[in-house]
Specification:
The complex is a heterotrimer of chains A (510), B (130) and C (168).
Chain A: H1 2-14, E1 22-31, E2 34-39, E3 47-50, E4 56-62, E5 66-72, E6 83-90, E7 92-94, E8 103-104, E9 122-124, E10 141-142, H2 147-152, E11 155-156, E12 162-165, H3 171-192, E13 200-207, H4 211-223, E14 230-235, H5 241-260, E15 264-270, H6 272-285, H7 299-307, E16 321-329, H8 338-346, E17 349-353, H9 355-360, E18 372-373, H10 382-388, H11 391-406, H12 413-428, H13 439-450, H14 462-476, H15 478-487, H16 492-508
Chain B: H1 5-17, E1 19-20, E2 23-24, H2 26-39, H3 44-61, E3 63-68, H4 74-88, E4 93-98, E5 106-110, E6 113-116, H5 119-129
Parallel strand pairs in B: 3-4
Antiparallel strand pairs in B: 1-2, 3-5, 5-6
Chain C: H1 3-9, H2 14-149, H3 152-167
Classes of the chains: A alpha/beta (510), B alpha+beta (130), C mainly alpha (168).
């Protein structure tokens, strides 16, 4: 109580100094979340405007006689003629570790009812991306826990990997699995006291999503114990288009704090198609000229400046990294539409999800042929490179031969063997949702496949074989897994040990 | 009223014609208004409406409204006027108004610039800081 | 007696004897070739068979002994393996139990922490509200009172301050 009184007295004392010169304007026109304000002669672009009653606006249009301001907040309380004043500040959000485990909106205000965010550091929402000299090449892996990705389309820390596909193909599921996998790795490193492991914090930005979807994501992450390492920034479909337009930049600002302070972060933008639509709405209401598909002319710049902020910076410039997983939803598999082609050209690779594969039962429905990671094996563990190096080629050959197999013609032994192996590899890559697989287990499983231990198992039983094998490894051969994890590479001794273990397992498996 | 671009451009041209020595000439303004009304074109209302807005904004930029609770002493008035003239040029006209809500002190508004030294402003700022 | 007489007494006649010897010889030869030799061969074969059988029997006994030894070995190995399996299973079970206990402890701790945090949050919120109310009261009081207290000197001073800021 004593503290409280002192605080109040200090604030009263501080009120003695009068305010300096202010710049004001009055609202001339108001509608659709956009206000045209007359006056405000000193307003700068992207400056925050105080509209009164705690409502903030953002200056987007500077014209000769008036200023176009988008309202971030409840604009139903504003009227024509209301006074608005400049704040002299760019739009900023609170950043820092105090945001971990919280659900916030675009201004950093909490939405989860767990009290105010205590943070003294704020970062500007719009910031120039790190320049060329500040960057460093990507060579640390992001273990997503999804075998198909970690083996064939590996993602590195500091990379931008686009996840693109039709609706309901599992795009968000891949990102949630990645977040859960990172949380498990972070927890394991904490428990083991491993200081050489750099934890990866995750930020999930929900742009225009249904509130029920966001609630489901939060529930899944809480159940998996991933919330203490995650920030959720949400601007649901019921929020104004201005909020939806700004929320990915707010998330990027929070990620940049981690990057600038020697930590690694992963940010998921779910999804950028809705972001482009929100920006289109804001631009049309501001009467900016529209172009192809009614998108404004700078929709490419919108996404490029957002995604360029994800990078790996050098040691002198923060020694951290920000990995971005943007999501784009295509219509009827059309990746040659305007916004998808834009984002494909900006990112360092894409993971392409197909509806056909999804309904055939291949989940995650990753099309290995069309997916690519331009960072590739530079960001892969050496052990994984050793076992998975040829997988992509083998699957490509399998896909070609599978067409022949459909006709049921007589095939020579070699072709038949390739087809059988291919089918089994496809089975191995099917994975249950929310069950990420640690990288050492992945290495062991793929090694077993590449060395023929699965060839004698009938295709419908391959998954049972795989899950029993993984249990077997996890319960009876923990040290082997720990050694693989520690050494990062498969020495001959490890390979021999793997052989013994696999032999022992196949003998007892029926 | 929808003011299209052509009407806006014409209104801006007319406004620039009324500027003499970087100041607005009242006679010219009246003359322009009469001529536009006489011409009676279809977009005359639109032109006039935008012209009126430009004139209004210019006038506001050069009018200083000084609100206070008590009568401002003469020497302080002079000081204020001198300061305003130095900052905004000689064309500034000053209007003194009475506004009891200020409680004490003086509030000066020139266009969009506001110099608020009133007690009410300080109290509002204090309350917001809580 | 003369030798011939002995022979004649015993009925031995040279020609008959010779004939008989020859006949006997022929019979012997015939018997030898058609009866004696095959029988011998057969006997030889039978002897060999018996010898083989005996040798086999020895081998079989040896095999049997070896198999028995192997069976013993396998039993011992299986026993050992079973023991290892049981040990591994026990270790795994102990690990799982440990994990579950840790999880339960962590969950319990989490509940305590959340409860404490919730209490702290409520406290903070009440303090903030209190501060706001106090602020509001202060401002209202000042607003109500100031107008009456301030003298014309104070008004002048305030006006001068603003004039200075405009001029600056």
């Amino acid at each position: 109580m004593g503290n409280l009184l002192m605080e109040i007295e200090a604030q009263i004392a501080g009120a003695r100094t009068a305010a300096a010169r202010q710049n004001v304007g009055s609202i001339r026109e108001l509608g659709d979340g956009v206000a045209k304000i007359e006056g405000l002669t000193d307003a700068m672009l992207n400056e925050m405007i105080d509209m009164g009653d705690g409502v903030t606006g953002l200056v987007l249009n500077l014209e000769e006689t008036e200023v176009g301001v988008i309202i971030l907040g409840d604009y139903t309380q504003l009227k024509e003629g209301d006074e608005a004043r400049t704040t002299g500040k760019l739009l900023q959000v609170p950043v820092g570790k105090s945001l971990l485990g919280r659900v916030v909106n675009v201004l950093g205000q909490p939405l989860d009812g767990k009290g105010p965010i205590k943070s003294d550091i704020t970062y500007p929402v719009e910031k120039i991306a790190p320049g060329i000299m500040r960057r460093r090449s990507v060579d640390q892996p992001v273990q997503t826990g999804i075998m198909a990705i970690d083996a064939m389309i590996p993602i590195g820390r500091g990379q931008r990997e686009l996840i693109i596909g039709d609706r309901a193909t599992g795009k968000t599921a891949i990102c949630i699995d990645t977040i859960i996998s990172q949380a498990e790795l972070n927890k394991a490193a904490e428990v083991a006291g491993d200081s050489s492991y750099r934890p990866l914090y995750c930020i999930y930005v929900a742009i225009g999503q249904k509130q029920s979807s966001v609630a489901r994501v939060i529930a899944v992450l809480e159940e998996a114990g991933a919330m203490p390492y995650t920030i959720i920034v949400s601007s649901a479909a019921s929020d104004s288009a201005a909020n939806q337009y700004l929320v990915p930049f707010a998330g990027a600002a929070m990620g940049e704090w981690f990057m600038d302070n020697g930590m690694d972060a992963l940010i998921v933008y779910d999804d950028l198609s809705k972001h482009a639509v929100a920006y289109r709405q804001v631009s049309l209401v501001l009467k900016r000229p529209s172009g192809r598909e009614a998108y404004p002319g700078d929709v490419f710049y919108l996404h490029s400046r957002l995604l360029e902020r994800a990078a790996r910076v050098g040691e002198k410039y923060g020694n951290g990294s920000l990995t971005a997983l943007p999501i784009i939803e295509t219509q009827a598999g059309d990746v040659s539409a305007y916004v998808p082609t834009n984002v494909i050209s900006i990112t360092d690779g894409q993971i392409y999800l197909e509806t056909d594969l999804f309904y055939q039962g291949v989940r995650p429905a990753i099309s290995v042929g069309l997916s690519v990671s331009r960072v590739g094996s530079a960001a892969q563990l050496k052990a994984m490179k050793q076992v998975a190096g040829q997988l992509k080629g083998e699957l490509a050959q399998f896909r070609e031969l599978a067409a022949f197999a459909q006709f049921g013609s007589d095939l020579d032994a070699k072709t038949q063997a390739q087809i059988d192996r291919g089918k089994r590899i496809m089975e191995i890559f099917k994975q249950t949702q929310y069950h990420p697989i640690p990288v050492e287990v992945q290495v062991a499983v793929i090694w077993a496949v590449q060395n023929g231990y699965v060839d004698r198992v009938p295709v419908p039983r391959v998954r049972a074989f795989q899950s029993t094998f993984m249990d077997f490894l996890a319960t009876r051969h923990v040290e082997l897994l720990a050694t693989i994890k520690r050494e990062h590479t498969l020495s001959d001794a490890l390979k021999a040990e793997l052989k013994t273990v696999a032999d022992a397992f196949t003998q007892t498996w029926t | 009223m929808k003011i299209n671009k052509r009407a806006k451009r014409e209104a801006e041209q007319l406004f620039r014609l009324c500027l003499v020595n970087r100041g607005l000439d009242e006679n010219r303004v009246r003359h322009v208004v009469q001529r536009v009304v006489a011409a009676d074109r279809r977009d005359s209302p639109a032109i006039l409406s935008h012209f009126w807005r430009l004139v209004k904004l210019d006038v506001a930029r050069h009018t200083a409204t000084i609100e206070s609770v008590t009568v401002v002493p003469a020497d302080v008035q002079a000081a204020i006027e001198a300061g305003l003239m130095r900052r905004y040029g000689p064309r500034v006209t000053t209007i003194f108004a009475y506004r009891p809500a200020l409680i004490a002190g003086v509030r000066i508004q020139v266009g969009s610039d506001v110099y608020d030294g009133s007690v009410q402003a300080r109290l509002t700022a204090l309350q917001k800081s809580f | 007696m003369r030798p011939e007489g002995i022979l004649a007494t015993f009925g031995v006649d040279w020609s008959h004897l010779l004939a008989q010897v020859i006949s006997f010889g022929i019979v012997c030869v015939i018997l030898y070739r058609f009866a004696y030799r095959p029988v011998l061969v057969m006997l030889e074969a039978r002897r060999q068979q018996i010898a083989l059988g005996l040798a086999n029997a020895e081998q079989i006994t040896a095999e049997l002994a070896r198999t028995e030894a192997q069976r013993q070995e396998v039993m011992v190995q299986a026993n050992a393996q079973a023991n290892t399996l049981i040990d591994q299973a026990r270790a795994a079970a102990a690990r799982v139990r440990e994990q579950q206990t840790q999880k339960a402890i962590a969950a319990a701790e989490q509940i305590t922490i959340s409860a404490r945090e919730a209490a702290a949050r409520d406290h903070d919120r009440m303090l903030a509200e209190l501060k706001r109310e106090v602020g509001r009261l202060v401002v209202e009081a000042t607003a109500a009172v100031t107008g009456k207290i301030l003298t014309s000197e104070d008004q002048r001073r305030l006006a001068e301050e603003t004039a200075r800021r405009v001029a600056a």
